[in-house]
Amino acid sequence: MIEEDKKNQDRVHDLVEKLHAKLKIYKRQLEESEQVASCNLAKFKQLQQACDDAHERADSAENALAKMRARSRGVSAGPHGVAHS
Q: Taking residues 54-74, what's their average pLDDT?
């Protein structure tokens, strides 16, 4: 009976050690995954900001172009097709 208890205790101890090793692996994988997620979020935010900035520049350029075209139309032809300034 004592010998059987000792074997059971050894088996339980081995299982606990194996589970502890798996737990360490899972914790390490979790930390690595969190680092990757954090890095990806930072990249996303950076690209999102760059995209927003590009949209603002495009809007400004379109507005400037529209103003230039409006001025150009006003200067290029008078009421009878004669150029005036």
A: 95
* Residue showing tokens 């990249």: 43
Give the phi and the psi of residue 78 in degrees, each rounded to 5: -90, -165
Q: Using CA atoms, how far apart are residues 65 and 57, in angstroms rounded to an integer?
A: 12
Cβ–Cβ < 8 Å for 84, 75: yes
C-alpha distances out from residue 41 to 4, 29, 73, 82, 84, Å: 55, 18, 48, 59, 57
pTM of this prediction? 0.61
How deeply is 54 buried, as exposed, middle or buried, from its count of CB atoms within 10 A (0-12, 13-18, 19+)? exposed
> How many Cα atoms within 13 Å fall on the side-chain side of residue 30?
6
Mean pLDDT of 73-83: 65
